[in-house]
Description:
Layout lengths: L1 H5 L4 E5 L5 H13 L2 E6 L6 H18 L2 E5 L2 H7 L3 E4 L6 H8 L4 E6 L2 H9 L4 E5 L14 H11 L4 E4 L7 H6 L4 E4 L1 H4 L4 H9 L12 E9 L5 H11 L3 E13 L2 E7 L2 H12 L6 E4 L5 H14 L2 E4 L16 H9 L5 E2 L3 H8 L6 H13 L4 E4 L10 E5 L2 E5 L12 H14 L4 H17 L13 H11 L3
Parallel strand pairs: 1-2, 1-8, 2-3, 3-4, 4-5, 5-6, 6-7, 7-8, 9-10, 9-12, 12-13, 13-14, 14-15
Antiparallel strand pairs: 10-11, 15-16, 16-17
Helix pairs in contact: 2-3, 2-10, 3-4, 6-7, 11-17, 11-19, 13-14, 15-16, 17-18, 18-19
Amino acid sequence: MKDSLKNRLNGLYVITDDSSGEVLFARVQAALRGGTRILQYRAKERSERERLTEARRLGELCRAAGALFIVNDDPHLALACGADGVHLGQQDMALAEARALLGPERLIGTSNRTPEQAATSARAGADYIAVGSIYPTGTKRDTVQVGLETLREIRRTVKTPLVAIGGIDREGAGDVIDAGADAVAVISAVMGDPSPALAARELALLFNRAAPWPRGRVLTIAGSDSGGGAGIQADIKTVTLLGSYAMSAITALTAQNSLGVRGVHPVPAAFVAAQIDSVLSDLAPDVIKTGMLYSGEIVSLVGRTLSEHGLAAVVDPVMIAKGGAALLERDALAAFGSDLLPHSFLLTPNLPEAEALTGLPVKTEPDMERAARRLQEMGARHVLLKGGHLAGEAVDLLLHGQTLHRLPAPRISSRNTHGTGCTYAAAIAALLSQGRPLPEAVSRAKEFVTEAIANALPMGAGHGPVNHFVAAKQLWHEQDY
């Protein structure tokens, strides 16, 4: 039993904050939905009875989610509530004393700042070693920053699972994992976020960066393009060529070619739900990518799915085909704004779509920033506004939290641009599923779609598809895969 617990000492490690009661339970439950693998309960200011009551309920939530439950500092509480283990600071009960109390089957972790401390803890039988503070943090006044190099040195010194802690957020977590951490511990980065589920998911995805190929799993929920240039077909090509595993739920069949859409045959919402449920119940996608959802009923269904499962979704609000055919029913726009947009991890509209969603004119770069911030106010966690309809260079704006990234690229004169939006969003989804942070995933996906347009070959008499194969080949050649 002990070995099975130790094998789970990896991934996102969340420490509770000062929240209590139902607020605490709701935040923890959301964090667990988002991919938290280890939860540490810390509540020094509450009475012994209150802590026992909260700890027991938190333990139940963790067991239901398949996560480890650790109690901070107090082996007696860990024993009383049936926790999986206890975390001890340098000034807490000695490890040998805690082991005598808890027995051999429960986990014991210790806080460490130096390779010497870590080696001593390992020899004493610690099941995991917490190292920190990695970055500056305001959580504790007496915190000493040890930095990434100390983490690397400790990784070289001991084989015991390492938990990195202190000042870690989505910006620095990837470097911490690369330096040798098996788990990354955070507090405010998840517990203080307005959306603990998506905050946890964004961090949890980073652990895929060392997974074997195909790396990451993407479920695309979109329409089928019989011409093969866009929709489900473009998504599966993109995800597969970039090295991830693609799954699909088809929302509509289209009869189309390079000249345009001749007909749309919607899939009943109940069968779309059956496809999604089949995948979620067995294949555990890391990222969802949505495209043509067509009806308000399907839009609402997808929004509920994202909320219930805490999944990160790259949402491409496909509304109108290049030839002018409507790909989203008129009454579905309201459902998009109310039921899907608030659960979107990344929204990727072009300028006409941004105008339709916000009601704002979007003709210039300042207009783009204004629209991106409005979409964020409407509920999207992050927004990528694509500037392909602007004159001049092809500039996209990524609003990552409150940070704005400008992504310019030379404008390529080509009529073979069918499927660029689908391809771009699918590439982002694949790279996110591989453990790339969002700004890097978007930047690399932008390079990919630019190469795909530049190398597109004429196919058909109208707007031909982009060249997924050559673009992927180029990206694999340039990047360290």
